[in-house]
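Hi there, hope your week has been kind to you so far. Thanks so much in advance, here it is.
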Amino acid sequence: METIRYKYLDKIDSPGDLKKLSIDELYVLCEEIRDMLVKTVAQNGGHLSPNLGTVELTVALHYVYDLPKDSIVWDVGHQSYTHKILTGRRDKMSTIRQKGGLSGFPKRSESKYDAFNVGHSSTSISAAYGIARAKALKGDNSRTIAVIGDGALTGGLAFEGLNNSGRSKKNFTVVLNDNKMSISRNVGSVAKYLTQIRIRPGYIKTKKIVEKVLLHTPIVGAPIRKLMLRSKSSLRTSVYRNTIFEDLGFVYYGPVDGHDLRKLIHAFNASKNVTQGVLIHVITTKGKGYSYAENDPKSYHGVGKFDIDTGEPLSSKKGFSACFGNIMCELAEKDDKLCAITAAMKSGTGLSAFAKRYKDRFFDVGIAEEHAVTFACGMAAQGMVPVFAVYSSFLQRSYDQLIHDAAAQKLHIVLGIDRAGIVGDDGETHQGVFDAAMLNSIPNATVYSPCYFDELRADLDRAIYHDEGIAAVRYPRGGEPYRPLDYKPDGVYSVYGSGKDAAIVTYGRLFAQAVQAMQILKEQDKHITIIKLERIRPIPEDAVKDASAFERIYFFEEGIEQGGIGETFYMKLRDYGFKGSFELSGIKDKFVPQSTVDEALEDLALDCAGMTAKISWN
């Protein structure tokens, strides 16, 4: 990315440098930051709308508070790019989400200004309150601030944190960034409640007048004092009504214009004088300052590389998410029991068209994966066929519900697991490498892992209409990989090739890598057969039987090895009396850092070169 010189931004190496600027200069700084954000995300991809919407908010936080002594915990963290720019990482922004570069999310190992690692939603209040309590135990009176969006507030963990922290006497502030959206438009009672607060006429003005009168009325004697306290509570409720946040024990201030630096700075300074929990309700515009993102914040929430002048993506290859959505629409047209559920990811999971065509059978439950699974179970108990579309890394949150509410009751729910396997540039928190092992541990669960669109269609049909209990179809981010012309899927597993030297066993998109490795090995006079699992749980018995005929077996898995499909396959081989060599290559006991998918597969030796090298060596 070309080097651009900025009048004020080039002088900001730490939050302390902000304090040297006037308010008018800070406004210019905000425009410079927006320019850098648009150029950076256009080059690298990333989260654009959330970051453009929180520029003034972030500048005001860093202007008022004393970082890193004071601590900011960002919910999700996809809105932390401005925070990174202001905390000494400006010159490294061109590396964001790249291999070895800056993370797209806060990371403690990256900077002393990052108080807590995040990537998933609704964690900030609990984490920040834990930090605040630990500080208090150490005699540290610095402040701790949790910044959470209105979308993340729909997650149950956020309410657990609010409930536990609201009456705290510690130096604790929650900043509610209300942009009326998460990824898809917010839904449910929380969104409606916040809308009521935003539009309530004269709320803050009336509140200030009432409190001023009540607080300055002379109190004579204990009886009158008690009467006034009761009167204050009654009058406060009748005149301007408490917010839920005040009922939970917070001092509530807002709504505040999240793009008015003076008002933001005033609110944050006021919070510093309060020794109990404070909640500041800030209204922002997602995508602000870049017309394409401001007009369509949903599409620009998380984007790949794009043309700044036109806003058009530089790649428009059809992906598995869109294919899944199309198939769901086709099936729903013929089956009025089929329902689709998403957790605030309507567009991300390809369900936008379904939501328009089948409104009565589409359910966006907000950022609440645990609720989504149990909600699906309730529907299943009444004879409906619920399909929950969810990213692999987000499904992790609903492990208990899958066991307790679905599997134990033998209720038939279907999981459309998007972003399964390596996701790439979003890094450790978003890699979909745990779902296969997680589901592998749940009794009677059925799991499919297609490599191509036609397999996705067939597997969804099996999962919806032929399986019982939990039935999951997991598929990768992006489009179809390389496909040999002579490959045709053959049921729940397929045998490709007729080599006698060794067998490669794999599933999902690694089949494409295995085919290319087989072609290279053939030139080395090594003849391989590939056993491709399409149903990975339960593993087809005939697939194990076919593999047991080989002396050497290489199992390649785009998921963690511990508890994964490869380990199960080996145990089944032993039941068939297998005495040969079995080598498992997957993701060992570690998290996978950010990079492109191709780079990650290369590093893990799960690409065709890694497969070839492993088999050639032997």
